[in-house]
Amino acid sequence: MALHPTDFTKCCKDSGILMVVKCRKENSALKECLTAYYNDPAFYEECKMEYLKEREEFRKTGIPTKKRLQKLPTSM
Prior knowledge:
Blueprint: H1 6-15, H2 19-22, H3 24-38, H4 41-61, H5 65-69
Helix pairs in contact: 1-3
Organism: Monodon monoceros (Narwhal)
Protein name: COX assembly mitochondrial protein
InterPro entries: Cyt_c_biogenesis_Cmc1-like (IPR013892)
């Protein structure tokens, strides 16, 4: 059965301090997944365009994306 990258998180939670020894297989699967994305030119371009859009919006408003997306209180 193929490992899923989220298996590493579960393994670490279940193993506690012994995760370094017990989760090597899951860590390798996670590294392979991340490396595949890191080397994908289409994914790089997608991330770059998202970053540039957020940067442009910040330069216009001065408000970071995280703060801009927070809900405003409904009652004042």
